[in-house]
Design a protein that fits this description.
alpha/beta; TIM Barrel; six-stranded parallel β-sheet; 9 helices
Length: 269
């Protein structure tokens, strides 16, 4: 009976996944999303590592967007487009996200966000919040929330490497582990921040059909990868692409990313 129910559940989830994956949006106002979604991680006065974007460079990128007629839209507006719940504005669009919940989001990113009034989605793994020395606290996140510019979504519970975990855990242990990573993150974020959490940024950009099914089962309606390209009508909503930003992405190089012609590099978060 358990096998039959499990198979039935998988069939239901498969139908949900196919529905969410359908790229035919029927949107008549803007028939092609073609939107770059940018990923940031850490900020600071100097480049501490390859995930750090200096604060001056980040502000210069925001100025570039404004000077070149880009509208920064909330990530949920893009997701709603795929779910046929709304239209995208016409013109040049871009989405800004930041992963991990690093404390520099509070010290460096927040003042710029408030200065230019831009929406940002933070993908957080709750195990680090108020625990890891590099991470923000729940109090800081609640303060950030009050600005009205930030949305909070899941990056799993503690940012595991699912490929590695699958090699060391037994199948039933791995299944429980995946369920915990997706469900506990969502529950913790919703409890602490009082917000709807239904987007998932895949840790290290790792995903497969099994993980997608588990994410949908846990209540996620959209997922985000690290493919360096713009979104399109043909995208699976659980695998929407994003550009990983580094400190070298400035000036003309930043412009090439926005134009969908980025330089190629291998990175993971």
């Amino acid at each position: 009976m358990r096998i039959i129910l499990s198979t039935f559940s998988m069939l239901i989830l498969l139908n949900v996944w196919i529905t969410l994956s359908n790229g035919e949006t029927g949107n008549t106002k803007n028939d092609s999303p073609n939107v770059p979604v940018l990923i940031y991680h850490r900020f600071g006065p100097v480049v501490a590592d390859n995930m750090t974007v200096t604060t001056n460079v980040f502000e210069s990128q925001i100025k570039y967007l404004i000077d070149n007629g880009y509208e920064v839209i909330p990530l949920r507006k893009l997701v709603d487009y795929y779910l046929k719940k709304g239209h995208l504005p016409s013109g040049r669009l871009v989405v800004i996200t930041a992963d991990d919940g690093h404390k520099s989001v509070y010290t460096d990113m927040l003042p710029i966000v408030k200065k230019y009034h831009i929406p940002v989605t933070l993908f957080l793994y709750p195990s680090a919040i108020s625990n890891a020395p590099y991470a923000m606290t729940w109090e800081q996140l609640r303060e950030i929330k009050k600005t009205g510019f930030f949305d909070f979504q899941s990056h799993s519970y503690w940012h595991p490497n699912f490929k590695k975990e699958r090699t060391v855990l037994k199948p039933d242990e791995y299944e429980k582990f995946v369920n915990m990573q997706f469900k506990k993150s969502k529950e913790k974020l919703e409890k602490e921040l009082g917000t709807r959490v239904d987007f998932l940024a895949w840790p290290f950009g790792i995903y497969n059909d099994e993980l997608i099914f588990k994410a949908v089962e846990a209540g996620y309606i959209a997922g985000f990868t690290m493919e360096r390209r713009h979104t399109s009508n043909h995208d699976n909503i659980m695998l929407l692409p994003r550009y990983l930003m580094t400190d070298s992405d400035k000036g003309n190089k930043f412009g090439r990313i926005l134009a969908g012609k980025p330089s190629q590099r291998n990175s993971s978060n």
